[in-house]
Amino acid sequence: MNNKREQLELNEFQEFLNSEPSTPGSATTQNILKIASFHQKKYRAVVLVKLLSIHLIMSTLSLYICHQFDMNPFNSAISLSHYFMMFGHHTCMLFCGSLFIGGSFLAARALLNRHEFQIIKNSLPLQLFILCSLSLAVFATLGAHLTLSITLFWLIGATLGTTVTTLQKVRTPNL
Amino acid sequence: MIKITSHTTDEELMNLYLQAHTQAFNELYRRHSGKLLTYLKKKVSPEVAEDLLQNTFTRLYTAKHTYKDNYLFLPWLFTIARNTLLDYYKKPETRISNNTVELSEDIQNPEAIESFTNNDIPQLLYNLTPQQRQVFELRYLHDWSFEQIGKMTATSPANIRQIISRGLKKIKTIKVSDV
């Protein structure tokens, strides 16, 4: 019976391949393209939410080992910023920004599937802007003292960290 | 930015679609919607065929995670279309038109279809009426019981037996005339 089913499916597929195309109604086409466009937007939004969730977890955890803008919510005794400060305040901010944002992209790379990560890569500047803006806004809300120069270095560090963690081409077969 | 051209294969387009490229979907739709519609029109009414075409392409999104890199796109799309069609048949509101059949004729042994060769069946089924073909497909290709088919088509299992019986007669006639 399975052979008969397979044979019929094969014949139907052959018939489908050889059939003359007919034109779908314009209303149907418009509907389908509209739905597809909506789905794609939804898909991108879902990926962004996933990235934000990963960032929320990773950045919170990173505060345990690297106190950003002197913030130490876990009251941990050791911070990488202590070592980074050996190279100067601005260099420290470069490393901090790199670790804080780059770490999230690195985790996203590990946790998301390659298509989702490619979606992030396709709009990397936007994703980076969203993550940095939200992070700095939260820092400011929690009372961090953000000055222009150190924030700028932090942002440069975040950009460098993100660039490095997303540098390698994501495998895209057939492309 | 990847440029989509006529040389871009379906599989490449599908990969781009998985990366949320709307243009890739539009191109896939442009390439294959016509043939899919023709296929569906052979199975159901033109109005329903357009609805099923829409459902098929909508399912591309929900089924996208089932697509693997080593798959050929077209058979995968066709499988989705076929499943969409079968789901439509299974819907309780789907009704076979003219489902009242006289029960005066003798019910023949439906298992007689087993005697035909694999190559015969698809061709023979196309000689049946859409109603008979639908019942035959559900019964012999999807192994549904008479009761299940009856429930789906809002008719009695006895009527289903009758529809199959008539279909078999027709098939036998065709077979004999072929010989």
Report on the architecture of this protein.
The complex is a heterodimer of chains A (175) and B (179). Chain A has 175 residues and is mainly alpha-helical. Helices cover 74% and strands 0% of the residues of chain A. Chain A has seven helices and no strands. Chain A is elongated and about 75 Å long. In chain B, helix 6 packs across helix 8 and helix 7 crosses helix 8. Chain B has eight helices and no strands. With 179 residues, chain B is mostly helical. At the A-B interface, helix 1, helix 2 and helix 5 of A face helix 1, helix 2, helix 3, helix 4 and helix 5 of B.
Task: Indicate the mean pLDDT of chain B.
Answer: 77
Low-confidence stretches of chain B: 95-110
| Computed structural class of chain B | mainly alpha
Backbone structural class of chain A:
mainly alpha
Query: How many DSSP helices of chain B?
Result: 8
Bulk shape of chain B: elongated
The dominant shape of chain A is elongated
Instruction: Tell me what portion of residues of chain B adopts beta-strand conformation.
Output: under 5%
Taken as a percent bin, the fraction of beta residues of chain A is under 5%
From the structure provided, what is the oligomeric state, counting identical versus distinct chains? Answer: heterodimer
Q: What percent of residues of chain B adopt helix (DSSP H or I)?
A: 55-70%
What's the total number of strands of chain B?
Answer: 0
Rg estimate of chain B, integer Å:
20 Å
